[in-house]
Amino acid sequence: MTTDTRDPSELHVPVLLDRCLELLAPAASREGAVVVDATLGMGGHSEALLDAHPGLTLIGLDRDTEALRLAGTRLARFGDRAIRVHAVYDEIADAVRGAGFDRIDGVLFDLGVSSLQLDEADRGFAYAQDAPLDMRMDQSRGETAADVIKEAPEGRLRAIFERYGEEPLAGRYARAIIAARQLAPIERSGQLVDVLQEATPAAVRDQRHPAKRVFQALRIEVNGELSVLERAIPAALDLINLGGRAVIMSYQSLEDRLVKRELTRRSRSTAPAGLPVELPEHRPEFKLLTRGAELASDEERARNPRAIPVRLRAAERTRDGR
Ligand SMILES: C[S@@+](CC[C@H](N)C(=O)[O-])C[C@H]1O[C@@H](n2cnc3c(N)ncnc32)[C@H](O)[C@@H]1O
């Protein structure tokens, strides 16, 4: 397939689109507003934001050059109101400065992989399709999943599966991989799935696909997803103007925990206990706009399976931290 002919709007259905637009509207409709879409992907959320707010400048980041290229086609009609930057999202401050701005009014994170990445068989993200074990979102740099499987000692494999996959059979799978790779290199997703299937007790095999958590864990490891996110959320919040907003959608509990922790920390008073009055500098920097995490409706979940695990959290800046 030649990638040039694909229509980005058909490759990725934006999750919780109306809710994201509603939450970002007060920030995106300000005069001269700048919003960062930290996970541009196929540009679905960005396109809707630019359509809804004619004065908005949108800076879209993605570490995947193919996603940036496809989103470029979709957003071309907005001219210089849509600025695309090839960056990992913890580089958000540099990206914003590079685009000529100091501060932003809103930020959107729609975490994880896109349907494009999952559907592209040759990238190795999906355990259901046999492909080279790559799994890098940015294919221009870094270690592939095959490199990890080939080189990591048993302890590291086990830790990856435990930490990023919360996989109860982590130790068993790590041992099975070490044994299998001594016989033949494991370079394709199909080979890895076979090794995992074989190492899984029959009773467990009936409950869930043995490769699901291991593949998630390898993807998180290869892309450094959690450590990047841990730096990116504070960096993005620091850039937001008074009254500006952040909307963050996570698709697994490890990400959502990081997001929740940072938003909760920023929306608490830092006044020492016992002070009779709260000094301005102790007031919370943000207020939460969501009670807990919001989920997609049953209707959206039925229409778009990608929306099933989503957890949305949002906050507004109420005090200028600088
Ligand atoms: C779920 S998709 C976004 C879809 C988008 N909201 C849309 O409507 O088309 C997530 C995108 O974020 C990108 N991404 C994931 N982690 C990233 C990171 N650390 N830095 C920059 N981009 C990242 C992926 O390459 C992917 O294209």
Which descriptors apply to this entry?
322 residues, alpha/beta, Rossmann fold, DNA polymerase, domain 1, 2 domains, seven-stranded mixed beta sheet, 44% helix, binds S-adenosylmethionine
Task: Provide a descriptive summary of the structure in words.
With 322 residues, the chain is of the alpha/beta class. It has 2 domains: 8-110 and 225-317, Vaccinia Virus protein VP39 (Rossmann fold, 3-Layer(aba) Sandwich); 121-223, Putative methyltransferase TM0872, insert domain (DNA polymerase, domain 1). The protein has helices at residues 8-11, 17-28, 44-52, 65-75, 92-98, 115-119, 145-151, 154-165, 170-183, 189-199, 202-205, 212-222, 225-239, 253-266, 298-303, and strands at residues 34-37, 57-62, 82-86, 104-110, 240-250, 286-288, 311-317. A 7-stranded mixed beta sheet has the order 3-2-1-4-5-7-6, with helices on both faces. β2 (57-62), α4 and β3 (82-86) form a beta-alpha-beta unit. α2 packs across α3 (44-52) and α9 (170-183) crosses α10 (189-199). The longest helix has 15 residues, at 225-239. The model has no long low-confidence stretch (mean pLDDT 93). The site of S-adenosylmethionine has 20 residues, from α3 and β2. S-adenosylmethionine binds next to α3 and β2.
